[in-house]
Amino acid sequence: MSTAVESAVTELRGMIVNGELPISERITESSAGNLLGISRTPARSALSQLESEGLLIKLEGRGYKIRPFSFADLEKATEVRSVLEGIAAGRLASMGPSEEATVAIEKSIAMTEAIISRDAVTKREIAVYQEANEIYHSAIVDTCGNDFVGQSLERIANIPIIAPGAFTEVEGMAQAEMLRMTVGHSQHVIIWDAIRSRDPVRAESMMREHAGAPIRYAKLFIGDGYQRKLMTTGIVNREDVPKT
């Protein structure tokens, strides 16, 4: 994939996930090219890539539309993620972590510990927490000795909230976010302890609980605020929002 296409994919993906493109709008090579200031050729390749990722649906004739996800879709994707990451954690515990994995994971834990020790969090802290989260999960997946785990995760990596390390801020819910981050950090510590102790059963079961938690924990700690945040992205159907 050329640099121009990679850049176009990244920009369009961000626009889709952040709700910057109307979900009902037809997206064509021409409109995407005009939007990004690129020619139709890289725009065509970028749209095809986003279709393969599951973020776009090819329409009859010309163009694409954004694929809306239901809450049920997100829950199913989370279920898959939890199994895959559980396998990675269990394998890493069986093998024993490499020095590379140890450095990355302990760096991540130190970063999140510093954040949850604060009295309050800002957007900056939430961004740092997300970065630390990505470091933690990537280190486990990338060093587990099974490349198919990472390759399989790539398929769902661009669905909002589902990607390993994903974290979404909900405006006005700082205390709830802090609680969710504290729980996540604690689970990271427990999973890492199981991996270092060479306990694959415990590592896998704890990772499955942790990786399968984004939607369940967000509902528990944030509730309707989380649902409203997902609706603002335009990628979740309003009619699919659970009634409260």
UniProtKB/TrEMBL annotation:
Keywords assigned: DNA-binding, Transcription, Transcription regulation
Q: Which SUPFAM superfamilies match?
A: GntR ligand-binding domain-like, Winged helix' DNA-binding domain
Quick check: keyword Transcription regulation in the entry? yes
Does Cell membrane count among this protein's keywords? no
> Pfam families recorded for this chain?
FCD, GntR
Domain HTH gntR-type, residue spans = 2-69
For this protein, the record's InterPro entries field holds: GntR_C, TF_FadR/GntR_C, Tscrpt_reg_HTH_GntR, WH-like_DNA-bd_sf, WH_DNA-bd_sf
Its recorded name reads GntR family transcriptional regulator
Q: Which organism is it from?
A: Paramylibacter ulvae
